[in-house]
What does this fold into?
Amino acid sequence: MPVQLLKIIKGESETPLPSHLQKEDLKCLQEGCDYTNKYFQGTVVLSYPLTKLRDGTDFFKVVLQDLNNSCSRINSINILIYGKMAEDCAKVIRHGDTFVVAGFKLAKSPTAREDGRHGCDLEVSEEAGSAIYIYTKRSTSAASETASVSVAPKYVYTPLNHLKDGTVVNLYGIVKFFKPPYVSKGTDYCSVVTLVDPSNAKLTCTLFSGNLDSLPKIYKIGDIVRFHRIKIREYNGQMQGITSGGFASLTFDGSVGAPVVPRTSSKLYTFLDEEQKTIEELRAWAASNLSISGPTAKLSGVQPMLFFDLTCQLVGKARVDGSSFLLKVWDGTKCPYPTWKVPVEARDLEGEKGLLQQLRNLTVDILVYDNHVQLAKSLKIGSFLRIYSIHTKQASADNQDVSHVEFHLHGGTCYGRGIGVLPESNPDVKELKAFLESVDLADSQNMESMSSVELDGIFSNVTDLQSHLQRCQQLSVTVLTDHQDLNNTGLKTILNSTAPQQYRIRAKLRTFKPQKLHQCIKLYCSKCNSLKEVPNGDDFDLILQDAAATAPNPELRNTSWYDSVMWTTQDQKQRKIAIHFVKHDEMLQEPEETLLMIEGGTLKEVWKLSRRFKCVIPVRSTEDDLELLDLSAPFLLQGSVKYYGCKQCSTPKTIKSLSSLAAEQRPSWEPTEIAQVLGIVPLQYVFIMKFTLVDGTGALNAYLFDYEKFFQIPASEILTNNFLQQKMQMTMNTLCPPGRKLDDLPWLECFIKSYNITDGMKHQVYYQIFDTTVAEDVV
Ligand SMILES: [Zn+2]
It folds into this structure.
């Protein structure tokens, strides 16, 4: 029998190979040589399904790897088996078997360039006098029992708890979190997927590809993926997956009972019957072990101040400006709130005019930003989309009493924010299509204004980010920016150690103070180490009123370094105002480059000017020069930021000192430089918070003292910027979600340093967070 199974007993073959056969190395195989009495031995790494050639001959292909040559670039070869041997081999062969081929022929391999294997294929058939010996660790009887399983490339799948650094593996996983593909730096698409499996281990994979189609087609949390050839590396004690050459993926619906149909752009893939079972097992496991219902909603169910995923159809689109793009979509239901309409030029709006008009009461405008714009532009009208993590924002326009809701897809990819295109075959799309067809369009026309009646009291300030927090829960929400050499230390050990020292910790934020975030912004003098409250607008207003009582001194008008305008208000107060525009090279500058000084202005006037001009310095006249106001008022305004000086440490000079800066080649008007020439020691805006951290070994209070680094938000700008305030609120909600049990809080990795404070007889150790940043993706 040309195909023989040889049993291995105690590491040796029970029956030796015929003695006339000589072993040949992979690297010595050449076309044209006689291999009648030679044999080649390798390990089965791949086998294809048994097929029939056109003439009816059975054909079976296996790939053997030469383990002795595993370091060389080419270490595998295709074995093509014809005729009865093909059938016999297919019955018994298993992945990993040692396979011996004797008396073969070599032929140039037509696929060598693609498959990277040996330049020749090894051809085997009974007619050519070949023989095959298969060493198996199984008993021969077991092999014949499995003889009916004649299947193709056998891959080994590694459970997520068995991953090792530096390996390339195949695996299955259930999607716990994902970011739909987005254009990353450069031209590649990037997608991030966090997988779990019944081993309860977790793996986050970062997948890059120049081809959008080759990234997994994940539509929702709970989908199941199969990855082939994903590279595993260890980082910070955790395994991560990244794309390697030859990466391939299949994605399956994760719902129990759904058809097992892989989503892939590849036409060439293998999927075996037994893998169907794997999918079904994973579905069943996920159904009982994971909570994977995403925050999907219909437009009829949206809530203000929430985030949701929407499955919808694209009806229109328009460019708004360079960083935002408008999508008009519908899902057949009506949003219960008045929704905003993004103003765009009619000629910029793409879409079928008649349909846009017909659906005008059912479509909503979604404004997408930054990294989502490019993808949004490429979307086809009529396509079905799932838009992830849309922010429903309640807003009221200045001139309207009625609030409306706005839909934003903010920039970034946090919480999996993004846009996915669903194929028509997607079950959700099928359902949506059927529903859209059933919508009675005549009905919706009459619904136009019903919703504004219900407005009062509907809007509540619920900031329910729960479902999103769940997605972020397992990942560390902070990033360490230095000192990678420090190892984690338990809080108890830290509490029992002497100060000063530096540590790295992994802990949860049990609580923090102050809870009202605007209270955590203070002004700090680095010279005298004092902290002050940020003055409110009323103090400033009083100081300005007080200063306006002194009329501008006409002799201080139009000097060599500034031009002045003066006027008297027409109202009863007859207020005298002077504005001095600082010149550069004898010329006035563009407003956005200009520093001006104002006398006699009101709070509102000062604010208005500071929006338009680069720097505004409120001043008053003395007999021989202009001078700064009381230091409880800002000495400088730039945009919305007010700069204050330390009363204790500053010795203000007259305004003439500024002329030295104005004379510079290109005055930058940096606040620190202005402060310096004016004799001001500037106060810096800082975040000061007390974090109570816990890690299971103990609890520790650590101070956060931060200008910008931790939150990635400048402390100087947050008080006047609603967006930044929202961002910070959301960050804190992520770090320390209200109403969550300790177990459910996210982990924070931080650096903290201890230091001693002695106050009289009292000696205490304090802790401060440093060199730690909230992860970019958290908000
Ligand atoms: Zn000071």
